[in-house]
Specification:
By secondary structure, the chain is of the alpha+beta class. The chain has a domain at 15-77. It has helices spanning 15-29, 35-48, and strands at residues 54-63, 66-77. The termini are far apart.
Length: 101
């Protein structure tokens, strides 16, 4: 994605800060925790960094105009991007997965 300031790899959507928070949790805790524990640690790290987020938000979906109440849940949802980004860009979704130690 190219930004107006032409800095490659710099985004207005806080993705760099979110990825940094994920890396910090992984460095501090390492492998082997349950996903729920990683989620709690990650959300605490976001809070420490002053980043807004929502946990376990229900997200609906549609198919050709049909609203489907499928009860999808997003693990962690950072704030939406600025309104000056293209309509196709909807923001970050952070699905958390834990791997065996």
């Amino acid at each position: 994605m190219e930004q107006k300031d032409q800095k490659v790899g710099k985004y207005q959507d806080e993705s760099e800060a979110v990825i940094g928070a994920l890396i910090e949790v992984h460095r501090a805790r390492g492998p082997g925790l349950l996903e729920s524990a990683y989620e709690a640690c990650f959300c605490h790290e976001l809070w420490l960094r002053g980043l807004a987020f929502e946990r376990q938000r229900s997200v609906g979906t549609t198919y050709r105009g049909l609203v489907i109440d499928s009860r999808y849940r997003v693990d962690v949802l950072p704030p939406p991007p600025p309104s000056d980004l293209p309509d196709l860009f909807v923001g970050l979704l952070v699905p958390l997965r834990a791997a065996p130690a």
